[in-house]
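Before surveying the methods themselves, let us examine one representative protein, pairing a chain with its fold in token form.
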Amino acid sequence: MIIKLNKNQFDYLIYSLSEEQNLLRLKLKKVSQENQFVFIEIDEETSDEIRDWASDELQRRGFDINYELTPDGKILEDLIDLFYV
């Protein structure tokens, strides 16, 4: 499947996947880039893994002390939605 990410979402995803998630990062195949959008090709299993990772990260650093979304939290929520199959 092809997923369309804006550049901020793509950059966040690539730079936030930790070294222990390096195998997951390697599964992302950049298909093309147009203006501010990046298209990647992934399979359903990888999509599930990214969504699970983003959900975990959302719980760790997605909210401030008042339970409001942080900037990271907003991007993570968007990634969860984008990778929902």
